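Below is a typical protein record.
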Amino acid sequence: MSVGGAGEAKGGYPAQTIMALGIVGGLVGIYLGHFMPPAYSFFGGIGAICATVWGADAVRRVASYGLGTGVPSIGMLALGMGILAALFGLSVGGIAGPIVAFVVAAIIGGVIGALANRVIGMGIPIMEQAMVEIAGAGTLVILGLSVVIAGSFDYAAVIENVIANGYIALIFIIGGMGILHPFNASLGPDEKQDRTLTLAVEKAAIALIIAGFASSLHEGLMTAGINILVGLVIWYLAFAKHYALIKRDAYAVVGTGMLPTAEELQ
């Protein structure tokens, strides 16, 4: 992990606005997916998409200081903190479980951020704040995708349908990729906030599609089909938008043609 960069990334969307989207959108989606009939569990996935965008923006702001190889690491750290906070919150919080989990995640993130700056000595001005945000976003992603698979954030349901069968590992990877990959794929002097966050939506939609497949074992094929369909629609719109932004920002977009055959290379 390297330190030393140009400073905090800027963008057209204020950090506070994206934070509000992540927290409010994430929690509303999680609660809608929990209280509404199983066919609407995709709302948990939409909540996870909102949280993923927030997490990806927090990563781009802190990683722009020069984290280097720490960009993937910080995404995995987000989901690691998220799993701990989510399980604790759901186990003790009852109906307020997601909120308890979010608060616990913020505390864990603050402690880790303080250790990174004051003990390890990374010296990144926004490290504490960023770790609070990333931990909170990671927790909401875990909860949202768990609701898609289990149809509820009830602790027993999540343990049975997400933890015991190993789907938590799946969530860990696809959720972490949604948070870490957008900036990792877009970093450089021409990185733009709207392009990076659109990529976050696209990756989070893929997570919803995969969670939709996983939901078929518990919620049935019809609900799984709805989850997958919603994910596909969001993915297509985000992919098309991201490609348009690539063409906007690139010097040129050209086709490479077919790869040469072995005979042509000789």
